[in-house]
Amino acid sequence: MTGRPNEEAASLFAEMALLMELSGADRFRVLAVARVARVLEAMPTDICDVPGARSGEDLSALVALEGIGESSARRIAEWCRTGRITDLEQLREGIPPGLIAILDLPGVGPALARSLWQNAGIVDLDGLEKAIADGRLEGIPRLGAKTIENLRQAIAERRRGAERMRLGRALPIAESIAAQVRALDGVDRVEIAGSLRRGAETIGDIDLLCVAEDGPAVARAFVTLDGVSRVLAEGSTRASVMRDEGIQVDLRIVPARAFGAALLYFTGSKQHNIALRQRAIDRGMHLNEYGLFKGPSRGAGDAQGRPVAAATEEAIYGKLDLPWIAPELREGETIAPPVPSDTLVTVEDIRADLHVHSTASDGSMEVEEIIRLARARGFHSIAVTDHSRSSVQANGLDVDRLHVHAARIRALAAQCRGVRLLAGSEVDILADGRLDYDDRTLGGLDLVVASPHAALRQSPDSATARLLCAVRHPRVHILGHPTGRLIGRRRGLEPDIRAIAAAAAATGTALEVNANSLRLDLRDAHIRIALDAGALIAINTDAHAPEQFDQLRYGILTARRGGLPADRCVNAWPARRLHAWLKDKSGEARRA
DNA sequence: GCCGTTTTCGGCCCGACTGTTTTCAGTCG
Fold it and tell me: Does at least one atom of strand B sit less than 7 Å from the CB of A148?
C-alpha cells in the first residue's frame, strides 16, 4: 500500500465540504465534513482496511473512529467499493465548479460567493473579473463600492501568483519585518507566530505578535511602514497589510501580561486552538487570546477578571494539565505530542553535515573552505559528497576523477585539526535501483549518500523497488532526498514510505531530511512514519555554496514537525558513535 | 454532521475588524 487512497478520499470529502458551503449548508455540517477529510488524511492505515469498509455491511468500526458518524461511514464504504460518492456527485451537479476559486479569494466567504452566483450569475473568476469591469455588480444587496474594489484587488493579487510561499523565503522576510516593527516607538517585544513558527513547509501569510501599550499608534505605524502595498485592516489590537514581497502580514498587538495567551492563539494551528479551548471548557474554564479564565465565556467585550494563566504559554499548558508543546507539534486534531517537546532535535544539537558539494562537481566551495565553515559551526565531522557520473548536468565525477578527488580529500583530512573530513559521494540511484558506481569503488569511500535524481516520474511500485535497492545496499549509509520532490515545482517519487522505512530500520541505513528549503525531503509526515518504523534519520544541508549551510534550520523545523528526537538523528551523535556507525551501520543500528 | 462523567437533542472555540449597516452579518485567524 502506498497510502494514497486515504489522500484521495480526504480530498473528496474536502471538496464536498466546499460545495456544501457554497450550497448554503449549515456551517456545523460543513465543519463536520471537513473534519472527516482531516481524519482520513491523518490516518496511518488504509481506511478501506477498516473492517466492514469494503463489504459495507457493518459500519460500526468506521463509526467508532473519532469524527466519523453514520453518514460519513456510509460515504466511505461506498467509496471503498465503487470509488465514487453519490452525495458528492449530486453536489457537483448543482454547483458551478468555478465558484470554488471565488470562495478561495481572501474576503470571500460562502455568503458572498453565493450572492455573486445567484444575484449576478457569476460562476468563475473570469466572470467575476468581467462583471467588476462592466459595473454589473452595482445594486446587489450588501455589496458596496468598497467590497467591489476589494474583490478587484484580490483577483489581481491572485493573478500575480500569490501562492503559498516557501518557508525558506518567508522566514527571512518575516525576520526583516519583525526587525522593522521592533524599531517602532513603544514596541517592547516582537515574535513571529503562525504557521511560520510551526515550521510549515509553505505559508499563506506572516503572523507577527508584539507587546505595546498604545495599540492604535503601533497599528498606524505598522500600516505605514516601507514595503506596504495595501492596508487590509487597521484596528486597536490588530492590523493587516499586503507587502511588496507579495505576502500578507498580520500584526497583533497585546499587553505584556497576556503575551503567552496571545502567542498561543496566534501560533495555532487552528485545530490545536480548538482542541485547547475545548480542553479548557472540560475543566470548567475558557481560553481566549487574553488568557485562561475561570468559568464559561460570557461573550466579547466582557470584563473577564483575573486570568488563571496568561503571561506564558508554559503557564497555560500547565493549568490545562499539559506539558509545553513545541509549536512544530501543534498540528492536527489530537493535542498529545508523539514525543516530549524537550527531546526534539535542535540546530544546536547538530554536530556534523554529511552531504556537501565542492567545486569538484557543481558546488562553489573548495574543500578547504568547506573545512573552515564546518569548524566555524562547531561540527566534529563534515563529508564532501560530490555527484556521481550519471549526473552529467551537475558535472558528476567518473571513477577516475572520484579517485583523484577522494585522495585529495584524504590528504587534507590527514592535516586537518578539530574537524574530521570525510571522503564521500552522493551517488545516483539509477531508475532500476542500481547505483552509479560499482561496489568496490563505493567501498573505498568513508560515506555514501545514495539519491534519486532522474526518472522521478516512475510509478510508485517502481520507485519503491528502486529505493529499496539503495536502502538495502551494504555500502549505502544514507538515502538522500528520498522522493526528489521540489516544493511547488515537482511532485517527485511516491514510494511506499512504510516499506522504505522498515528496510532502513532493518539495515541501519539512515533516511535523509534534506534541509534545502526547496526540498525538505523527507517531509514531516514521512519522518513520523520512519520514526515509527525504527529508522535512523540524517539531517543534511546538501550545501552547494557557503550560505546554504544556513538552510539547516529549515531541515530542523521539518524534523521537529516529524517528531524527531536528537538521539535518532545521526548528525547529533558524538563523533565516536557517528564514526562507529559509518564503519558498521547495521551493527551500530542494532546497538541503538 | 457529530457527539454525550449534565445530553439521543441541542449544542458545536472565541474575538476583532470591515462594510453596509441604524444593530449586525460576514469573514478571518
Answer: yes
